[in-house]
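Schema walk-through. Below, the input block comes first and the output block second. Nothing else is stored per chain. Lengths vary across the set, and this one has 290 residues.
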Amino acid sequence: MQIINNRFLTVPKTPQRARSAAASRSCPRKGSRKASRKQSQSSADLAKILALDALLESKWKDGISSVSDILRSILNGCLLSPSGWRLFSEELVARLLPKVLHDKRDAEAAEHDLATSVAIVMRVLHQAADMLGSSFSDVAGQVLWRNRRASVLQNATHKAVVEDLSWAFCRSSSFAGNDVEVSDLSEDIHDYFSGLTSGRKGCMTHREWQQVVALLIKNPILKSRIKASEVEHIYFADERKSTRSSGGIRFKVFKKLLLQLAESIHVHPWIVVFALGAHARQTLSRPSTA
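--- output ---
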């Protein structure tokens, strides 16, 4: 348990340290790098919890005090699994909320106490991750991304957490209470983008964006979903006028485009990332003809 702003919240378990920091430095092992990554992930998850805490408090202040209404509000439809499953908010409320409410007193307390309400919502999100075969990081990332325009998430600290999209580029699952990484395509996507935009110093033009989309629609799942008009709207959104005026789309914005595309066709971002990553690996593995 972690106490945040005098609230007790359930946070992902951090891996136990079998050796002291001094011993780790003096005798590095193969597992040290993996342990470091897990520790970093735990820190990232804690940052997500702080952002979620602020979001939930803002809902409470807006007059949404019912736990079920808060869940419906922040989910805005459904949670998605990298495998293609969907957990709609109504199903989540009906199936998971009763599991975390120990008795009627919990439900009544949640209606009048912010700390209790937040703790229950957090437990439901953990349960949702288990049901989806995903990770808390993934579920929290989805919730924050969908609420990215909320005023409470616009301060520098929370905005940085919302814009950390690593959860969408790394498929992981929950096992024995810990998040277990399955695959990470971040570097593959970055290398592909760098190669595609090498002639323009890392700036993607509309033509190159169309090349990316052409690769994506080769995927049978995405082919029937991606619409040309939506693809164009995503690229030419008003919020990127300043970016385009500088010569194109940078990698940070490109990642957001991929998530917006996934959002528009109602699939988990990993499906889009995986489809592009597969072609990226093929492209990068081809011998140069120069």
